[in-house]
Design goal:
With about 130 residues, the protein is an all-alpha fold. The protein is built from 7 helices and no strands. It is globular, with a radius of gyration of 14 Å.
Length: about 130
């Protein structure tokens, strides 16, 4: 399968969430957010839903192929993981499956929240 190459290279901001990065990348390259997400979603994955934004920021390996997303966005896979809680989960799960971790269960809100004042200051969504 060939990978689409996009002319505008977008670098992640420090502390930016993966959702925010994909949103910025899609806007700057003239592709819809969902189309970009669909390019890298796991083949066995379900249809994309609004609640998946939380999962995308929590453990992206559950719903996207991080290698494919990194290739499409011209990033290192490590950069994709850093925009989520993947490394935190991996640290406390050891070598067990990160995507099944319940380490942070109850610590994160079920709804997606953002601060409009923070967005006015810097136009991206923070992971925390």
């Amino acid at each position: 399968m060939s990978i689409d190459k996009y002319t505008i290279r977008v670098k992640p901001f420090l502390g930016e969430s993966l959702f925010s990065y994909i949103l910025r990348f899609s806007e700057q390259n003239g592709i819809s957010f969902l189309d970009l997400w669909k390019i890298s979603k796991k083949r066995r994955s379900h249809f994309i839903q609004i609640n998946d934004i939380r999962v995308l920021n929590y453990a992206p390996v559950n719903i996207i192929d991080p290698i494919m997303m990194a290739n499409v966005c011209a990033l290192e896979v490590d950069e994709i993981y850093k925009m989520s809680f993947y490394y935190l989960l991996k640290r406390f799960c050891g070598e067990s499956k990160v995507e099944r971790s319940r380490f942070m269960s109850g610590l994160l809100e079920e709804e997606y929240y953002y601060c409009p004042l923070c967005l006015d200051e810097k136009p991206y969504h923070r992971l925390l």
